[in-house]
Amino acid sequence: MRKRTFSSWAVLFVELGLVAFLATFLSFMLFSLANFSDNLKRYSFYIKTNNSEMTKRELIGLHYFYDLSQRWNIQSLADKYLFMHAPFYEVSYFYLINDWKMVQEGLKEKLDDPMSYSYGNARFRQAQFEYKAGQTKDALNFVFTEVSTDYEKALRNCLDSSAPYLQCYDRVWNYDLVTNKKSAEEALKGQKPQPKFILGPPKDDKNKVLVPSRDRNGKPGDGKEGEEKPGEPAPRKRP
Question: Which of 70, 131, 148, 236 pairs as cysteine with 139 (C-beta 3.0–4.6 A)?
Fold first, then answer.
């Protein structure tokens, strides 16, 4: 068996060191990718459940991973495969907290993207605020001239993206809403339909539960609670 020389041992140690470095680097990369995936899932969950506080927390985590890709000099790959929707993460948070100006600011350069449909929603909410502030005519005109154009563009973007029609239905509904004067004005007023059925026990004007009155035999009576009937003693009060 041939004995190894010092140079051969040195080469072997260098090769082992490179293997160990690559294994450590790949392990760290996989661990970071798993954490990023969990972070993104939690962010999406809190957006769907309207939890603004936890959404902001997860958004900070997504910013950390984005900055990490810059430090590793792999930002171009990360933008292509991991952060392709990153510009919309922060916009979704602003939409959740009703910051309509920041939503418009974040989307105004991306209006050709089908994911920018909330731009029109933010402009409609802005018009709704002005309508309730008394600027009814200007707000309604803004919806007819500006917001309707935004919704039309969002609808065309969705249909041109080859998405199934049902995925574009909300865009169709929005466009139909703002192009109908009566529907648009009702939406700007923000009036909610009255419930046809009121669940729970009946309540008075002071929101107190009404207890049905009873006769001497303990059977339900016809009058209101505490109402005296002819021949009946007045209800006794606690001392």
Answer: 131
